[in-house]
């Protein structure tokens, strides 16, 4: 168990990491701008070049940080809810639902705002379908929830494949980028950031109860946790966090799975530290990955989801092989 | 006289539509130890978790310290009774000390962190079950018996006055079986705790409990002092296998025919 002091130190150093990732995101790119100009623009008294950077790169970095943080938080919560270290934010079909909504909007050439709106509606739809089916007879067990989620996700996958196969070629590129996760088409950064702050503030009061929940339902209940209420809350929070992120940036993979594991490995499994640390680490990773995505083969851009997966897969396999049996 | 630590009124328990306990009354005072005996699948564990308020009874009520369990907030219930389950699994890593400290949860406010005092209590509990010096070990490196003792230490850290133990001796070697039973006998004798334990060995039940509750699995239950009820005759009927009774220095022993 980390002491308060150690938790504070870890979070402070992760805040520094987050700042560093922002610094890199603002300075890296085809347009070279001196850090002094950027700082001046951030303070609101810059000249032309600094302002461009701040108006273009800062919102994208903020959106990236918010999405990374949301995914890492949702992943950490899902892993406790399902008591399964391999759970990620998408395991219960949220991204599938969002994908169906977004693909539908893109297939009919709807504007960006409608794509976001339908993606969010799709995510909520998947959430309620999974909850309704899994909770139907009141048993609401982890296995049942997981199975229902996986099946709904598979159904969504089929619908997405169907729409991809009938879409004309001009639209395919955008659709594929959405599915792989892409911050280049982000409409606005503040809804995701607001969602991140709200989700973290809602989750933190339950952090110690989550520690107990990860040890088993009966165990947690015997130690005084109102298990049912807590599980509804966590399910709702994790789903909404995932929906907010998917709506903003498409289904970016591996952040939600790998980041909680990385943090757990470094700091232990106390949710009071794990949740905020995951948010900071996940946000920073996504900002860094997105910076790489738009600079590695500039002026072409890669979907950031490809980069997070390319980084995530080897890291995760490495962690898994190191895990004591 | 104060309210009993545990009371069951007209309690019925069912498993999968079959009533295994039918309108049972039970009352446990401070310092009393009760053994629950019965065949596999007779409903002992289900009865125990119902008595702990972890599952709703089919009918009747369970009272902790005179208050209806169904109306108690989970945290209030956790301050009154500690429950030891049969299965522990730890999908995520955790150290021995962290695990023992989870017992402090009901005593802490929402934003509290475990204090030095809590850590002290946890260390004492670990010492009581012979796990001192293993505070930083990961739980999944423990043996079955060590894991069981860690669960018992967590229970002691919870510091409730009523202990509900589901097969507390599973995985334990002989010396630790005796140590654990002595530990709870001491808690009942010195601290006024009440103990209910599901046991499989009638000899140990006779030696370490005041009363026994026999669960037949068809709705019938029988209660009595251990001297009266733990006899070759009743136990042979309970288990459906002939037993012979041997007395040695006040201890009873039962040998299968």
Output the keywords.
heterodimer, A: 325 residues, mainly alpha, ABC transporter involved in vitamin B12 uptake, BtuC, 76% helix, 0% strand, B: 257 residues, alpha/beta, 9 helices, 33% helix, globular, ABC_BtuC-like (chain A), signal (chain A), ABC_transptr_permease_BtuC (chain A)
Question: What would a concise description of this structure say?
Answer:
The complex is a heterodimer of chains A (325) and B (257). Chain A is mostly helical.
What does this structure look like?
The complex is a heterodimer of chains A (325) and B (257). Chain A has 325 residues and is mainly alpha-helical. Chain A has helices at residues 4-27, 35-42, 48-81, 94-107, 112-135, 142-166, 169-180, 190-203, 207-213, 217-222, 227-249, 255-267, 271-295, 304-322. In chain A, α3 packs parallel to α8, α3 (48-81) packs antiparallel against α11 (227-249) and α5 (112-135) runs antiparallel to α6 (142-166). The model of chain A has no long low-confidence stretch (mean pLDDT 88). Chain B is α/β, with parallel strands linked by helices and 257 residues long. Chain B has one domain: P-loop containing nucleotide triphosphate hydrolases (Rossmann fold). Chain B has nine helices and twelve strands. Chain B has helices at residues 44-51, 74-80, 96-101, 116-128, 144-158, 174-191, 202-208, 226-229, 232-239, and strands at residues 6-15, 18-28, 33-38, 59-64, 67-68, 81-84, 162-166, 194-198, 211-215, 221-225, 243-248, 251-256. In chain B, strands 6-7-8-3-9-10 form a six-stranded mixed beta sheet, with helices on both faces. Chain B has a four-stranded antiparallel beta sheet with strand order 2-1-4-5, covered by helices on one side. In chain B, β1 (6-15) and β2 form a beta hairpin. The longest helix of chain B is centred in the last third of the chain and has 18 residues, at 174-191. Chain B is globular, with a radius of gyration of 18 Å. In chain B, 44% of the residues are buried. Chain A binds chain B through residues 1, 3-4, 79, 83-85, 205, 208-209, 211-212, 214-216, 218-219, 221-227, 264, 268-270, 272, 324, and chain B through 49, 52, 54, 73-79, 82-83, 85, 87-95, 97-99, 101-103, 105-106, 108, 110-111, 113-114, 138, 140-141, 158.
């Amino acid at each position: 168990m980390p002491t308060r002091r150690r938790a504070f130190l870890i979070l402070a150093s992760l805040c520094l990491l987050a700042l560093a990732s922002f610094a890199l995101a603002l300075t890296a790119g085809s347009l070279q701008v001196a850090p002094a100009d950027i700082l001046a623009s951030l303070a609101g008294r810059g000249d032309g070049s600094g302002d461009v950077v701040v108006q273009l790169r800062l919102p994208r970095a903020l959106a990236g940080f918010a999405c990374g943080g949301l995914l890492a938080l949702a992943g950490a919560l899902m892993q406790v809810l399902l008591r399964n270290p391999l759970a990620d934010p998408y395991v219960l079909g949220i991204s599938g639902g969002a994908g169906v909504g977004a693909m539908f909007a893109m297939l009919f050439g709807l504007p960006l705002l409608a794509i976001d709106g339908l993606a969010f509606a799709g995510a909520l739809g998947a959430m309620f379908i999974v909850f309704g089916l899994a909770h139907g007879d009141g048993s609401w067990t982890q296995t049942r929830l997981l199975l229902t989620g996986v099946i709904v996700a598979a159904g969504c996958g089929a619908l997405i494949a169907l729409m991809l196969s009938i879409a004309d070629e001009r639209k395919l590129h955008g659709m594929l980028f959405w599915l792989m996760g892409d911050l280049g088409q982000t409409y606005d950064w503040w809804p995701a950031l607001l969602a991140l702050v709200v989700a973290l503030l809602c989750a933190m009061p339950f952090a110690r109860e989550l520690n107990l929940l990860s040890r088993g339902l009966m165990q947690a209940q015997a130690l005084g946790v109102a298990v049912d209420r807590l599980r509804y809350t966590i399910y709702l929070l994790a789903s909404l966090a995932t929906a907010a992120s998917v709506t903003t940036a498409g289904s970016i993979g591996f952040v939600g799975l790998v980041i909680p594991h990385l943090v757990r490995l470094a700091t232990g499994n106390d949710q009071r530290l794990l949740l905020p640390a995951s948010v900071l680490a996940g946000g920073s990773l996504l900002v860094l990955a997105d910076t790489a995505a738009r600079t590695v083969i500039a002026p072409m851009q890669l979907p950031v989801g490809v980069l997070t997966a390319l980084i995530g897969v080897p890291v995760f396999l490495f962690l898994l092989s190191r895990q004591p049996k | 006289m104060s309210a009993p630590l545990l009371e069951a009124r007209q309690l019925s328990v069912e498993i999968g539509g079959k009533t295994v306990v039918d309108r049972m009354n039970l009352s446990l005072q401070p310092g009393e130890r009760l053994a629950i005996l019965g065949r596999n699948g007779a409903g002992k564990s289900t009865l125990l978790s119902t008595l702990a308020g972890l599952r709703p009874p089919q009918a009747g009520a369970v009272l902790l310290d005179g208050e209806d369990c169904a109306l108690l907030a989970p945290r209030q219930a956790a301050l009154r009774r500690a429950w030891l389950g049969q299965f522990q699994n730890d999908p995520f890593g955790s150290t021995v000390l962290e695990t023992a400290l989870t017992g402090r949860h009901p005593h802490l406010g929402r934003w509290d962190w475990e204090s030095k005092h809590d850590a002290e209590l946890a260390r004492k509990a670990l010492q009581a079950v012979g796990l001192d010096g293993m505070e930083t070990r990961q739980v999944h490196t423990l043996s079955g018996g060590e894991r069981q003792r860690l669960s018992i230490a967590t229970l002691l850290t919870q510091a409730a006055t009523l202990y509900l133990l589901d097969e507390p001796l599973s995985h334990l070697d002989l010396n630790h079986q005796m140590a654990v039973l002595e530990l709870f006998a001491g808690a009942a004798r010195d601290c006024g705790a009440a103990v209910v334990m599901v046991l499989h060995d009638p000899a140990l039940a006779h030696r370490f409990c005041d009363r026994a509750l026999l669960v037949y699995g068809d709705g019938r239950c029988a209660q009595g002092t251990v001297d009266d009820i733990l006899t070759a005759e009743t136990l042979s009927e309970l288990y459906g296998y002939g037993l012979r009774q041997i007395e040695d220095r006040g201890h009873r022993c039962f040998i299968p025919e």
